[in-house]
Amino acid sequence: MTKKDFKNAPLPFMGQKRRFLKKVKEVLADHPEHSVYVDLFGGSGLLSHTIKANFPNARVIYNDFDNYRFRLAHIQKTNVLLNDFKQWLTEVPKAAKITGDARKNVLKRIYQDEIKYGYVDYVTLSSSLLFSMKYVNNFAELEKETLYNKLRGADYDASGYLDGVEVESLDYKVLFEKYKHVENVVWLVDPPYLSTEAGTYKGSYWKLRDYLDVLNVLDGTNYLYFTSNKSQIVELCDWIETRTATGNPFYGATTTTMDVQMNHSAKYTDIMMYKYDFKSASTTA
Q: Checking DSSP bridges between strand 59-63 and strand 222-228, what pairing results, if any?
């Protein structure tokens, strides 16, 4: 059992499935005690952490293809940087713009840290200094943006977050081949959304072919699959099933949805689909 059951990833990360954590725990409660969970698109590791924290006898493999662990390893440097900003910005109201000398000092300090350490966590800085869910990846992008005081009160803490979790860093297809014959294996499948930035995964947009290739993982396996109504992948599979001889990988799966309000005018629906049959789908390693 880990020291703490995190409800959010310890450092900001786009796409973490925190809204589904309660449902994930409910769904997995009747799985075999020693199931093996392979988090193919591990992202922030929140799903992997949650499963290991609540089912300590399970084996959990977290595919950290985005190298989130590198950000965790530098968490203290990030805290020092943000704490200095808190001291400098006491006169700047919460959510107000950072202007003038205050802005110059913030940018100067960030640049100095990059020169000194060769690394700055721009994703976390984006969450602390930018508005409307904007994220940048480097100093050149940051200095073009309007800065705001969105600093949080507490330090970031990842103590015990990945305790007991096994870590891989492989292409998901390679990882699937490595574990597909393991007994009682369950695939956690949360690919990048269709036509959106895929982070470090291939370093480009996640195209339709990439998205469809992932569905091979679902053929005759136990899985929890995450998508949204933005991708329309479920409708596409229904169409393929009715127009061709190809089977629908979601046939017989149970669906859970969550409405997500991005702002006052934009929203979408997150979707989790799960299917398991340990008697027929598991094999001996």
A: unpaired
Burial 1-18 (b: 16+ CB within 10 A, else e): ebeeebeebbbbbbbbbe
How far lies 282's CA from each of 181, 223, 285, in Å?
A: 7, 12, 9
Helices H, strands E: what count in the chain?
Answer: 11, 9
- pLDDT tens across 159-215, in order? 999 999 999 999 999 999 999 999 999 999 998 765 455 454 445 556 777 777 888
94 touches 198 (CB < 8 A): no
Distance between CA 157 and CA 102 in Å, rounded? Answer: 27
- What is the Cα–Cα distance from 132 to 134, expressed in whole angstroms? 6
Q: What is the pLDDT of residue 282?
A: 43
- 170 in Cβ contact with 178 (< 8 Å): yes
- Residue 191 one-letter amino acid: P
Domains of the chain: 18-67+169-281 (3.40.50.150), 70-148 (no CATH)
pTM of the model: 0.85
HSE value, Cβ hemisphere, 13 Å, CA-based, for 101:
2
pLDDT at 284: 39
